[in-house]
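The data are passed on as follows:
___
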Amino acid sequence: MTLLSVDHLVKSYGTGKVAISDVSFDVNKGECLGLVGESGCGKSTLARCLLRIESIDRGSITFKHQSIERLKERRLRPFRKDLQAVFQNPTAALNPKLKVKDSLLDPYDQYKQGLKLRHFSYTSKDAFVRQLLEAVELPSSLAERYPHELSGGQRQRVTIARAISIEPALIILDEPTASLDVISQGAILRLLSDLRNTLNVAYLFISHDLAAVEQMSQRIIVMKDGTFVDEFQSDHLFSEGRHPYTKELISIF
């Protein structure tokens, strides 16, 4: 079932630069779609457009059968519950003045009206936080700590726990391992894969790291200079039919 459908999306800036040029794609329920390309090709701009952080010039964004590209914030709010994000820099994503437990409780507090959880149960604040920390393989003792008291990998696990706390249908992962060391990168990728299977959540996994994208994704889209140049099943990465730019990426990973 199609969860997110993007058709002929165009995004430009006042300088005249076209950041995204007429891209179309779908994300299906429960799958991981990988989006790979060099820094500056438009991947993160696309993520911000999908999250409605930035407006678009033309095209449509359909999420759960509803066009959301022009919705005002009040009407967009119900869809935000089902469309969460994890960004590259977990330090910037977490409020330094909030303890871990308060950051984890924030999405639930915002969207609890009418919220029906299938995998987590909200019997008390402390129990809910413990479940979330356990889901991302962190000890419950971290609930009382502040972000600066955690390692980079731990902070990213907290942002992942926050994203899954209200059981969204789709999480946009924008370079989620780029700021981590190699060991932490591998652990986070394994965790994300396990969570996708457990929670049946879909991912749009955005990265410049082709090896990570191949590991995580069922399908891969290759982006260059604001447009899509290649799309294929991940097990066809090394086929002869790949675009020359895809082959160039393969040669350097």
User: Anything to note?
Assistant: Residues 34 and 48 are 16 Å apart (CA to CA).
